[in-house]
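Dear Dr. L.,

I hope this message finds you well. Following up on our conversation about the binding site, I have prepared a predicted three-dimensional model of the protein together with hypoxanthine. For your records, I am including the exact sequence and ligand specification that went into the calculation, followed by the structure tokens. Please feel free to forward this to your student if that is useful.
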Amino acid sequence: SSLHDLIEALPKVEQHLHIEGTLEPELLFSLAAKNSVALPDDPVYASPETLRDRYQRFTCLDDFLHYYYLGMSVLVTEADFETLAWAYFQKAARDKVRHAEVFFDPQAHTARGVSYDTVVAGLAAAKKRAQAELAITVEYIVCILRHLPLPESDALVDTVLDRGHLTDGTLVGFGMVSSEKPFPPELFADIYARVARTGTHLTTHAGEEAPASFITASLERLGVERIDHGLAAAEDPALLASLARNRTLLTLCPWSNVALKNIPRFEDAPIRAFLDAGVRFSVNSDDPAYFGAYVQEVYCRVQDTFGLSVADWDWIVRGAVEESWCSDERKAEIL
Ligand code: HPA
Ligand code: ZN
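The resulting structure of the complex is given below.
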């Protein structure tokens, strides 16, 4: 539509992006060879093309997570994490992303013998380079995996607190990811309370595959200031009203929601419901190498599907920037 030029030029912030979800099949295969990591003896892993083909047929969140955790087993050295993140930042720059708040999953690496410090050092190097060479500001959000035993998440928090990374600028916040429905927010109240004492930003994935009650419980029991996905909020008018009143940002990922069958069609994304309720939300890519679209393409698909006005886009982008976890000076530069 006629707004595509405007949408491509919009200064974007990406607030829901898993760095491990930017691992393209070609890089996956080349790192597997370099690091002598054996891929499954399965025709899906015959080539980058057969793997990418399988990515087009995810049946649900857990089906995706299987390939996601398997894929990241090729990431071994500090340089691998830097390569991964740098490749993403170059794509983000192409898409006019000015500021990125990026999730990573240390437990998926420490479980394979790759240390937390190796992961963070590689990501930090890529961040420095993105800021210097691409003028993108980058912040990292460390995530716990909700499907793992709680003591393992507590051990990660021990490490993060020991390093002082939530207060020295290395990390901007704390989040929670992975399989949602079997692991309700209440289970993690003590961990969030521990992390909250640092004063860092708190978020969690909620209302992706689980109902709106998981969003309410995340806000009330975990003290999060932001909700990642928040798809299910659309089914609860009282929740929508309170999200709007409290200016709670939802980091919506409509392309992901269709790819993982959380909604049947792109038209079912709650864009209009959120706009009408005055709920602040951003448009994000989630795991672009797995779902096949980086953020610019997601923006364009929103426009093609919903035919938003310039005022709608201005409101979306302004809300996302204002609720970003960067300095006020940086927000003013982006807007
Ligand atoms: N949901 C839960 N966990 C995840 C996701 C997601 O969309 N992407 C990567 N880990
Ligand atoms: Zn996500």
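In brief: The longest strand covers residues 137-145.

With kind regards,
A. P.
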